[in-house]
Design brief:
Elements lengths: L1 H15 L5 E19 L4 E4 L5 E13 L5 E19 L3 E25 L3 E25 L5 E8 L12 E13 L3 E10 L9 E15 L11
Antiparallel strand pairs: 1-2, 1-3, 1-10, 3-4, 4-5, 5-6, 6-7, 6-8, 8-9, 9-10
């Protein structure tokens, strides 16, 4: 993760020396919930999984490339994005909690509009961002408490496998973000986005599993502004 952010930072700084391109390293946290269901075609019944809302980190860098002088800009980014899922089954015989963390390298393409509140005081921004992401790692852990006929607890952990087999997960994720934020004149920036995945990472027939929806709050600092107080 550190190598990815470092390489992206060096690339961004080199671009900013050529044009009025700004570079924004960001760190933040996701608050997301997976979505999934299994469909039984014989009974014509859909069983929906009840995932919990979970926290996970997200960090990376974005390059803001102005499109003219009216506040519009193109902002590609490169992020290391962790999405975490947890599901609990609590029945008469046992209670089992399973947690999975899926780590993605993510490329969002932000289409952004920014406007100043007053001269040299800061700016608001709104964005629409399609994204594509590819899984590079993941793990699953769980705890099962057997209730009857005897009481005992077992735990387990394993690495997630990515591929096209039924026991593996599809590594490709894609979707879109919408968001807004505010940037201070000094360069400090706060951004909040909402994202929704359109991909199904399950290889099991009649099963849908998605990273679902996510809220992200991040803090960044804008580098490479050639004229202090000028945002675009």
């Amino acid at each position: 993760m550190k190598r990815i952010v470092l390489l992206a930072s060096l690339f961004g700084v080199s671009l900013s020396s050529i044009a009025q391109v700004t570079v924004t390293p960001e760190v933040g946290y996701n608050f997301g919930k997976f979505y999934g269901f299994t469909y039984d075609p014989v009974a014509n019944v859909q069983y929906t999984e009840n995932y919990d809302w979970m926290w996970s980190p997200r960090a990376g860098i974005a390059l803001d490339i102005p499109l003219g002088k009216n506040g519009f800009s193109f902002e590609p980014g490169l992020y290391y994005n962790v999405r975490t899922a947890r599901i609990t089954t609590d029945i008469e015989e046992y209670k089992e909690t399973t947690t999975a963390g899926q780590n993605y390298v993510e490329l969002p393409i932000n289409l952004k509009y920014s406007w100043e509140v007053a001269r040299y005081t800061g700016k608001f921004m709104v964005q629409l961002s399609p994204y594509v992401a590819y899984a590079v790692a993941g793990n699953v852990s769980g705890k099962r408490v057997q209730k009857i006929p005897t009481s005992y607890t077992t735990t387990y952990t394993s690495e997630l496998e990515w591929g096209a087999q039924m026991h593996q997960l599809k590594p490709l994720d894609y979707g879109a973000y919408v968001g807004f934020g505010y940037q201070l004149q000094m360069g400090l920036q706060v951004r909040m986005i909402y994202g929704l995945s359109f991909a199904n990472f399950s290889n099991v027939p009649n099963t849908v599993a998605s990273t679902g929806s996510v809220f992200n709050l991040s803090v960044g600092y804008v580098l490479g502004r050639k004229i202090p107080g000028r945002f675009y």
